[in-house]
Amino acid sequence: MPPTSPPPSTVLPPLICGTATFNDQYNPDPYALPTTAIVHQALSLGVRAFDTSPYYGPAEDLLGTALDTPFVRQNFPRSDYFLLTKIGRISGDEFDYSASWVRHSVQRSLERLHTSYLDVVYCHDVEFVSPQEVLSAVKELRRIRDEAGVIKYIGISGYPVATLCELAEMIKEETGEPLDVIMSYANFTLQNTMLASVALPRLKAAGVKVIPNASVLGMGLLRRKGVPIGAKGDFHPSPKELRTAIQAASDWSDKQDINDKRLEKVAIRWALENWMREGADVGSRGDPASGIPWTRENIEKYGGNKLGVSVMGVSSIEELRETMRVWRSILDGLADGEKTAIDSGRGTDERAWSLNRQKEVQTLATGIRNVLGTWVDYAWPSPPRGFVNQRSAPGVPAPLPTPAASPDPVPKQFSNTGSPDMRRLPPL
Questions:
Q1: Which residue positions in the chain have pLDDT lower than 70?
Q2: What is the tens place of the pLDDT at every residue in 59-91?
């Protein structure tokens, strides 16, 4: 199998907007969120990639609705932004990695997102199924990629870094082709850095090209007010003892004589800034969203160094703007950041501020990790002990019979030219 071309490390943006927040796990009513405004503002601010999943409740539909608007169609051609989604996870306790469900899920994502192709498709939360199920799903996704051309890059996502490493190694050995992308979440944070210390060497050796770091707040754990409570209640898998330690670390940070010392502010900047460097070998040269006006950017312009890729979810315009302010400040503090700061109009004063803030955050981070003590690099069990997949019959359920008086449904025909006509997937 020839390598995927071009490599995702040359095109994926290093900042990806995550849409897990467009879900009732994180928010009481995701339909009340200004999701269209968030997506439009993100694009206007230079964000060029969006991560989603069918498991995230209405997230795919909400993202697709935001993209299927005159504002986006007239200002942002489909080739200018990247869409990343997933297959396999249906609900909290239901998974289906069968070939028929993979095809169904990809087809449904194409329709929901109003696109003729998907840039990245992950197998979602791979630790909940067997290695053979993951291998089978990856093979089916590659078949769809090769025969239908509606997928560009294929990867896996999950929580336990050891599982991600074992699967990456197994898939390369079994198929001769490494995974393009592996997304890890909550494993490069102030509390847990095992993505770098444990997983990174093995995943690089397994040929993985890009490793996005998601959930830099540990699924909302690293917040002054505690984990988020959405419509589904307290879903977070962390034990109460870890939560108590996090609260103690937050209280310690609040007492320090440093500005912007709130736990989540420190945690976000520390993770984005440090993964930008530590994840560079498995990062990307795509558009860095540095804020240079009227420019389609590429890191090649700034020396060609790759940046570690991060996924950031927001629930409001204010959170988005703050994320972009922090992101651009981090870019200003890079070795070649002075030119970026000048070209973007922020100036050399912003670079000096960034370098000073970098020192402040590192001081706070060291203290926070000292307070956490033995909870540093703790990972909660995933799947939880005793987990049983409730998907009793894998595959797409047979449709209900159509009443005789109803006309036969006409299948939507797919093309490769864009929304709303999209391509049908090939049969087995």
A1: 1-3, 293-304, 398, 400-424, 426-428
A2: 999 999 999 999 999 999 999 999 999 999 999
CA separation, residue 10 to residues 121, 281, 330 (Å): 17, 12, 21
56 is catalytic: yes
35-40: Cβ within 8 A, 24+ apart = 35/62, 35/63, 35/65, 35/66, 36/62, 36/65, 36/66, 36/69, 37/317, 38/66, 38/314, 38/316, 38/317, 38/320, 39/63, 39/66, 39/67, 39/72, 40/66, 40/69, 40/71, 40/72
Contact between residue 291 and residue 328 where contact means Cβ atoms under 8 Å apart: yes
Distance CA 143, CA 154 (A): 11
Number of H helices, E strands in the chain: 13, 10
Q: Per the structure block, which two tokens stand in for 130?
A: 């067997």
Is pTM beyond 0.90 here?
Answer: yes
- 284 phi, psi to nearest 5 deg: -145, 160
C-alpha to C-alpha distance for 291 and 106, rounded to whole angstroms: 33
- What was the pLDDT predicted at 256? 97
CA distance 29 to 375: 33
Residue 223 amino acid letter: R
Give the per-residue pLDDT at 294.
Answer: 52
How many whole angstroms separate alpha carbon 274 and alpha carbon 359?
12
Q: In whole angstroms, give the CA distance from residue 154 to residue 123.
A: 8
Rounded to whole angstroms, the Cα distance separating 133 from 101 reads 12
One-letter identity of residue 120 = V
142: phi then psi, degrees, rounded to nearest 5: -70, -35
- Return the pLDDT at 302: 42
Closest among 48, 208, 40, 58 to 122, alpha carbons compared = 208
Cα-to-chain-centroid distance, residue 83: 10
3-state secondary structure of 53: coil
What helix, strand, coil percent values describe the chain, rounded to 5? Answer: 45, 10, 45
Q: Are 414 and 421 in contact (CB under 8 A)?
A: yes
- CA 130 – CA 196 distance, rounded (Å): 25
* Sign of CA pseudo-dihedral 278, 280, 282, 288: positive
Q: How far is the C-alpha of 146 from the C-alpha of 139, rounded, in Å? A: 10
List own/partner pairs for 254-263 with CB under 8 A and 24 or more apart: 254/224, 256/364, 256/367, 258/360, 258/363, 258/364, 259/360, 260/357, 260/360, 261/364, 262/224, 263/222, 263/223, 263/224, 263/368
Question: Which residue of the set 26, 55, 56, 185 is catalytic?
Answer: 56
